[in-house]
Amino acid sequence: MAGVNNMLETVREDDFVEYFLFPAIEARNETEEETLLSSILDKANKIVKKYADDYLWHKDEFRLSPRTSIHNKLSHIDGVKENLPPHLYGVSHYGDNIEDEWFIVYILQQLTKEINGLIARVHDADGEFILIEAADALPRWASPETCENRVFICDANIHLVAPDSVDEEDYAISVKEAVSQVREKPTETVASIEVQNAIKDKLSGYPEKAKENVHRATIYVPVAIAAILKHKPTLIAFAVQAFCNRDPIDTKACRAMKYFPPENRVLTSVTFTKCMYAMLMHSNYMPDRRTGWNLPPPHSPSFKAHLLGVKVACGFEILATQAKPSADIETDRGWHSYLKSLTDKGYFKGLLEHSIEHNNLLNKAKEYYVDHRDSMHYSPVVGQEILQLTKTLDYSVDELKRQEQNLPKDDDDAWLNITPEELDKMLQEKYGQKTMLSVNNNSDAAEFTERVTNFLNHVSGMEGVEFPDEDPTPVRPPRRKNKTKVSFSQDTKPEPTPVNNKVNFDPNSFACAVQNILNFVIPEDDSWNLESDSDMSEYEEDNYVKDESYQEVKNKMQQYMEEMDKELAATTIGDSFVKKNGDSFDDVENFTPVDINVNALKNILESYRSQLGEAGPSSNMLGPMGVHLEPRNSGGNAN
Prior knowledge:
Blueprint: H1 2-10, E1 16-22, H2 30-52, E2 65-67, E3 72-74, E4 81-83, E5 87-93, H3 98-114, E6 119-124, E7 151-154, E8 157-160, H4 175-184, H5 186-189, H6 193-203, H7 208-212, E9 214-222, H8 223-231, H9 235-244, H10 248-256, E10 265-273, H11 274-281, H12 303-322, H13 333-344, H14 356-372, H15 381-392, H16 397-403, H17 420-431, E11 437-439, H18 445-457, E12 460-461, E13 464-465, H19 507-518, H20 543-546, H21 548-569, H22 596-611, H23 617-622, E14 627-629
Parallel strand pairs: 11-14
Antiparallel strand pairs: 1-5, 1-6, 2-5, 3-4, 6-7, 7-8, 9-10, 12-13
Helix pairs in contact: 2-3, 9-11, 9-12, 10-12, 12-15, 18-22
């Protein structure tokens, strides 16, 4: 039953980031722990307010709560219960805006820097996600499995608690033990300067960067919504989420507009995050004119303000409609979201619906939800707050009308559009190779083919290609079993490891086969020789081999090859290949060997020209190898 309680407590959407702050305190009892934690919490909240007071959170804000050492909390990532040291705890959902997650990392850095002795740990559904940015600089023992519970922030620096030996079969370490090592051996656990710089680059620009991530726009909304947003601007985030995630029931509410009718509207200026603004702009919706919405023509300068206002108003209407009486759980939208998450996480263990065991688990989940709904992410408390504001908020319609004349200018939303060239540049800066080989007509063909050959011949494993300038034999500890983790690369998703049906795969034979295909190499044995019967020797007793049809097919194939040779001999296709200068075969009259290197380079360049600057086989193949094709300055084609 303990496992059931743990799942009820920890089930959440996958867009969460969980964080812990461990202070250096010693207390004789729980009461003293609570007093010390409350004092540190007050300091932490002042620091958070300094950096995040004006920050517009996409979903959940950064929030800390004290936990004494008697709290046995289940770790959401590894499923291991542990009695943690006294700490401050928080969990936030960041939705579609990944910037919130990294801003939380920045706040944790500042907290550990300004509060002496504070050590932070942060992770999300993918595990120790901050190491993704420093994947190229990690020590060779580090992998998603071995780094679990070993990544911390202390004095604004990243700390990695290394395992005692690379020969260990199990790299599990308790959070309590890891925190002790960071506190007792700060110089030994601090990560390399390369790792520190990678994280600093990711967080560079904060907190000023947060101001660059907002967009101000004018919207035309019902007066009640304008007054609510003046009173509490952060509610815009919930309205955008509600509108963009609407379902048919929500759409029905938008046609009624019971709480925010469109009869009396005003212009008001609202601050969105860029993510919210983009979501709203790209969410297609045309209101029903019978509701009372009267939009100007699409080419009108005021059309965007009107349409944005409709979408925001619908978002507030959905939130108000979802605010249900607390006793009516079956019509509570939050309950159904919570129940769906429980089901997706395997809470019901595949039990038959309406069975006794299933009903017992369902009733237990209902009891837990009713007791904790006000503190849960699925709570309709936002809608209830909006309804309360419509009844108690004092505002003047005339004053809102007068403020229409002095609204700030809208921010330019040209950032919504990006050209293919800008996208290519961004991708190159983010994922491109640091060293590139530029290719044009004057390039050394031998150097080009050598680069391609080295790439094909280099070692690769199941975790990806090892480029020629990397260490081909990294020391990695054995992987722990029964774990599904994301790799420390930015485009990798967790995949389940099959338990049975093992596939026997010889990477050396596979690489050799691919290389032979690319080089047009015929195997040295006589298995492909039509004149040889050695490949069929073991099948001499087979009735099919003795059948005349086999010999007939064999003769037809030989005849086909001879006819093809005659056809090619009558063409000039051989003249299309570049020959080697000064090389010839004395024993073969009028024969000059083909220059393989030059022809390979020539064909690649011709393929690139046919792409006309777009993506194609040549650029897609050579890009990961670090080979860059130079376009002609005047015409956009390759030289």
